[in-house]
Amino acid sequence: MAQAPGEKQEAEATLSDRIQAFRREIQSLVAQGAEHPRFEFKRSCSIIRENLDDRLDFVKLLQGIANSSANAERCIVIGADPKAKEFCPVSNFAEFDWAAVSALAEKYLDPVPQFEVFNNLQTDAGVTFVLIVLGAVQPQPVLIKTEGAKADGKTRLRVGEIWIKRGTALQTATRADLNSMYRQQMEAEAEARARERFKHFTDLSRSTHAAGIATRLPSRELLVGPVEDFQVFVEELIAADDRVRFRMLVELIQEPLTDGWRSLDARVRASSGTVQEYVTEANKFFRDEFLPSLQSLVSVGLLIIKHDCHAEWLQSVVDSVVDAFEGSRHLQGLKSGYVAQGQDPLPWWRPASEIYVALKCIASYAILRKRLRFLGSVMPRMVARISVDDRKTMETPVLFWPFEQTIFEGEELNDGRSTFFWKERVSAAWGKYFATPEKYLGAACQLEFLLEFNSYLGINSAGDPKIAKWLEINAEGVSYIYVPDLYTYELYRTAPMAEACYDFISSDEPFPEYLTVEPSLFKLAFSGKTRDERLLIYGGFLYHLKTWQGKVRFHNFRLFPFTYNWPGRLLQASDRYQKIASGVKPAVPG
User: Is the pLDDT score of 213 beyond 60?
Assistant: First the structure.
């Protein structure tokens, strides 16, 4: 599709920002002699046929990185040596044009990995290097399809081999690796089978189709039929401002989400089924009814935002999703120790976690489309945290972290929650609304910035006596503590939201309530203060967020802090706070 001039400029600006971010990070890592699992450094490399050994080693490296479970973009940097803390000028950079690398990948790999090539970048000192960026989402598993032998006749690539990069080493893929790669594929196929099983609903309703979508009533067939048909139906309701059928649709979708688990428990008890029968039925219900209903409901919300429809329509969608979250806290069957011993049991927290990802998706899309007013439907929603033993827990904003326990035990979140959510659910269910992983991650990081700003005031990090008094009176049993998903993402992704908040705070108008979890906290923090006083508070938040990110990266992940710093007026606000906090009298901002 052709882009409007403004859209093209925005895309180019985004690409330029990404390249500059990569340049900064690569130079920082090399200067500090730091290894990083997302960056593969090579002093030199060649992919022409005359240098066969290098050529095949490069193919194997490309395959291994594409098959890795990074959940984030990964880079091959040619012309850098962190051990020696130096760059080595690449004279053969012309070999690495995109067409040549693509032809090489097409010859040896199936399917071809998704990558970008920047083959003539330069350091600040003018040293040329090559950067190849592999996308966060890859068509895994990538297999060797053509045998390759080195110059000495030794076979380097065998047809059917699956190499994967784990840490800093290339290894052959294990069964667990393949299971992980196929999981998302299998879920998509399971959904397709579920739709096929309900295809008879479509056949039975063909006469209704003949009368036109606009005259149809919401039906179960819509939820399990073609996704495009469902989208057209919702858009017809929006275009016609048909509130009655819209409410009927939301009610139809909500039934499996709120009542389905109780029906499942009753059905299994009535049949006196075995533990394994319950496990099988629970998995089937989750796959064939719960997930399609949740995905449909969220799609309704995204379409409301896309077409800038009534905020109260989105409110009814969010109400239904939050009701489903509340219903998912009492899944006693899934929490049973006997059920946990069954084969492939559904984790008790899985329905709630899917709902959490769904709410994050809705909020992120509102930010992506710059429809910030819709955030007012979800930002203030409070829930009690879910726990395995159903004990009374603290209330917290639903977009924070509404789980009492750590529900992920592996390294799934090491590359960021948002990256994990994209790969595990968002890309398959709602990816078309975001278009690319980068756009989703940008919006998700802006949401994290906003949530952390709310948390910063909610735990009174600014040390405001009025906020302290308000919390003492009004926040008993409520937790505003939040750990933002910004430990693995450079803060340039948050800059649009940071700039918007700066505008709101520097204005004499009140901070928009639709961007707040609790409006009273923002009124107490900013009302009755001068512009400089308000910006000093905001500068403190910017300073503490960047400081927190650096500490978490170093202490939790043994990674160096990002080199990115706040730009322009954001940096001025942060620096002014830092100087005042350290006892230095700064210049009055202009």
Answer: no
